[in-house]
């Protein structure tokens, strides 16, 4: 076999390891070496919170592969505790520091792949380096957290930052018996998602004993008789035995910057859709690179394992002359906390507004629904809170968010694929999805979302939104049964139960816009159809009283 290319990979976890393994599948002749600064290759970063929480009992369960396996199965050399210090692009060489021996040497490459990931942000606050303050990125990080809890019998933890990793760490610390406070600068947890979708998450966290300090910022840390005091912007102080910092990650671009590779506006390594950097012999993948959003066309950072793995594979393909190309990202992500799943795909309303792409009168519309995750007649159905955003012009699906105990991942994944294929709400109406009582309904939540959205676009069921109800001055009609109405209703609403509506239409004003609602929007849709055919001007409040409560309060009762 003729001597093949020499491929060097920097970083041996998600992007780097998948690139190396794919490269071997494409060329038996290539020489492939992975340099990894840390003590492990190809470990499960996503499992780290669960190792802290002792759900994953043994450290070795976090190791997806070992250097021995890479050697035996793929003939790939893995050099652990080897940090790449610099890139000599002119001579196509890298400088490597063996962290065990202290020696430094040069390695030549034909193709270099950078997959250095992203490092947790540590804000430059007073006392930030105090013992007992941790970030979570590596196996040693999570081991240290476990040891700290055990050694100091830690009882109180503060998690700074309420995103994915913050929530996962919170659950695992609670499971270890700690009382946990989350401090979040934004008025909501999961700050990338739409606030009304998260209000029930706040309630769920509180029910599970977690204290939330939203709209709050840490300004410094002090050590205080063996524990930590967190000084807060409000002037208050929070005491802790342990602090987890989960305030985001920053792409590791030092190597690339110093080598003069182009860095994008968002601070990631600039690559084309073949994952090639500004140097034709260097590729970059994973958390360190900037990627294009398939929906908005905007370039940004998307630190997720799926894109990192796919990009690694694509870089290997391109190195070996294949015509592979990265489609872009849509930020499909999920987290489960105390049994509640929160997931999204595509840009949220909040993101679209931030990008200046959301125009209330213009391009996009949103709908809410709260279907059961499977058929209601089969025991155990639970509600999914679902939000779909779509283009008004052609029904193209833009994004979806879902929160619920069961079946959330399946629905978000269907929408994720639909977005990639430029599908419309009319496609969702027609989607043929698996159904049996345990898994779905003959009209799956995906079909229902399509039908509701298509009804809006066809003009069959115009909608109004909860956030605009109060200021609208419209006649508000609640078509639920009186006990439901008595339990809570929109201020000023008139209650006429659906089953009495045909006989009582004379009580409704013909000259005014009527906004109908029920609990989730289904009965009021029937009312809507009945009234519009009788000449009334009606709109359905999308998602009903449940969405209204989510939008106007800090949580709904489930
Ligand atoms: C706690 C946690 C939970 C997560 N959960 C999820 C999840 O549930 N779902 C999801 O999609 N994503 C999750 N992620 C994100 C996901 O792990 C990352 O998006 C993914 O690992 C990125 O892959 P990467 O190859 O770019 O970087 P990494 O996997 O971070 O690998 C980069 C490696 O490069 C090494 N390195 C850096 N510089 C050098 C150098 N100069 N020389 C040698 N080696 C170097 C680093 O030591 C590191 O091991 C989670 C991340 C964390 C930390």
Q: How would you describe this structure to a colleague?
A:
The protein is of the alpha/beta class and 558 residues long. 28% of the residues lie in helices and 25% in strands. It has a 5-stranded parallel β-sheet with strand order 3-2-1-7-18. The chain has a 5-stranded parallel β-sheet with strand order 9-16-10-11-12. The model is unreliable at 554-558 (pLDDT under 50). It binds flavin-adenine dinucleotide (FAD). Flavin-adenine dinucleotide binds next to helix 1, strand 2, helix 2, strand 4 and helix 8.
- CA radius of gyration is 27 Å
Distinct small molecules: flavin-adenine dinucleotide
Number of helices: 17
Write down the oligomeric state. Answer: single chain
Termini Cα gap: 65 Å
Keywords:
558 residues, alpha/beta, five-stranded parallel β-sheet, disordered C terminus, binds flavin-adenine dinucleotide
Task: Give the helices and strands, then pairings.
Blueprint: E1 6-10, H1 14-26, E2 31-36, H2 48-52, H3 67-74, E3 77-80, E4 82-88, E5 93-98, E6 104-108, E7 111-114, E8 118-120, E9 133-134, H4 139-151, E10 156-160, H5 164-175, E11 179-183, H6 195-207, E12 211-213, E13 218-224, E14 227-232, E15 237-240, E16 242-245, E17 249-251, H7 254-258, E18 282-284, E19 291-292, E20 299-300, H8 305-319, E21 333-337, E22 340-345, H9 349-354, E23 364-369, E24 384-391, E25 397-404, H10 408-420, H11 425-430, H12 445-458, E26 463-464, H13 466-472, E27 475-478, H14 482-486, E28 494-495, H15 501-504, E29 513-517, H16 522-532, E30 537-541, H17 544-552
Parallel strand pairs: 1-2, 1-7, 2-3, 7-18, 9-16, 10-11, 10-16, 11-12, 26-30, 27-28, 27-29, 29-30
Antiparallel strand pairs: 4-5, 5-6, 8-17, 13-14, 14-15, 19-20, 21-22, 22-25, 23-24, 24-25
Flavin-adenine dinucleotide (FAD) is lined by residues 10-11, 13-16, 35-38, 45-46, 48-49, 83-84, 115-117, 136-137, 165, 252, 255, 286-288, 303-306, 308.
């Amino acid at each position: 076999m003729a001597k093949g290319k020499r491929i060097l990979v920097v970083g041996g976890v998600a992007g780097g390891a998948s690139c190396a393994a794919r490269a071997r599948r494409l060329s038996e002749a290539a020489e492939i070496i992975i340099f990894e600064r840390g003590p492990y290759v190809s470990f499960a970063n996503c499992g780290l919170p669960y190792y802290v929480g002792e759900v994953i009992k043994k450290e070795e369960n976090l190791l997806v592969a070992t250097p021995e396996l890479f050697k035996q199965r793929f003939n790939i050399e893995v050099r652990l505790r080897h940090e790449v210090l610099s890139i000599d692009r002119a001579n196509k060489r890298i400088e490597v520091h063996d962290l065990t021996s202290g020696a430094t040497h040069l390695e030549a490459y034909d193709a270099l792949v950078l997959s250095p990931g992203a490092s947790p942000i540590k804000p430059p606050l007073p006392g930030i380096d105090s013992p007992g303050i941790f970030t979570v990125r590596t196996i040693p990080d999570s081991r240290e957290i476990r040891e700290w809890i055990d050694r100091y019998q830690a009882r109180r933890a503060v998690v700074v930052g309420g995103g994915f990793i913050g929530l996962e760490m919170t659950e695992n610390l609670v499971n270890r018996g700690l009382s946990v406070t989350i401090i979040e600068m934004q008025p909501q947890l999961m700050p990338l998602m739409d606030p009304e979708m998260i209000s029930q998450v706040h309630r769920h966290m509180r029910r599970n004993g977690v204290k939330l300090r939203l709209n709050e910022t840490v300004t410094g840390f002090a050590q205080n008789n063996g524990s930590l005091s967190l000084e807060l912007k409000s002037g208050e102080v929070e005491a802790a035995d342990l602090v987890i910092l989960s305030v985001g990650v920053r792409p590791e671009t030092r190597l690339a910057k110093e080598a003069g590779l182009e860095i994008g506006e968002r601070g990631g390594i600039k690559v084309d859709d073949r994952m090639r950097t500004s140097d034709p012999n260097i590729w970059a993948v994973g958390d360190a690179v900037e990627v294009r959003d398939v929906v908005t066309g905007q370039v940004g950072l998307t630190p997720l394992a799926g894109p990192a793995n796919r990009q690694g594979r694509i870089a290997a393909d391109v190195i070996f002359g294949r015509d592979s190309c990265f489609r872009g990202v849509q930020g499909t992500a999920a987290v489960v906390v105390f049994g509640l799943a929160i997931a999204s795909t595509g840009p949220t309303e909040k993101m679209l507004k931030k990008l200046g792409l959301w125009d209330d009168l213009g391009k996009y519309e949103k709908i809410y629904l709260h279907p059961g995750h499977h058929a209601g007649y089969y025991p155990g159905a639970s509600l999914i809170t679902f939000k779909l955003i779509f283009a008004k012009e052609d029904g193209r699906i833009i994004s979806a968010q879902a929160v619920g105990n069961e079946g959330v991942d399946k629905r978000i994944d269907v929408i994720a694929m639909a977005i990639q294929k430029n599908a419309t709400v009319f496609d969702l109406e027609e989607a043929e999805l698996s159904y049996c009582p345990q898994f779905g309904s003959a009209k799956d939540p995906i079909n229902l979302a399509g039908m509701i959205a298509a009804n809006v676009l066809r003009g069959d069921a115009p909608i109004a939104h909860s956030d605009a109800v109060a200021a609208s001055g419209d006649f508000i009609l609640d078509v639920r049964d009186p006990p439901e109405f008595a339990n809570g209703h929109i201020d000023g609403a008139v209650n006429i139960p659906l089953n009495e509506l045909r006989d009582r239409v004379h009580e409704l004003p013909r000259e005014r816009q009527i906004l109908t609602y029920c609990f989730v929007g289904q009965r009021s849709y029937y009312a809507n159809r009945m009234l519009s055919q009788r000449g009334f001007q009606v709109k359905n409040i999308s998602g009903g009283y449940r969405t209204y409560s989510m939008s106007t309060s800090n949580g709904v009762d489930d």
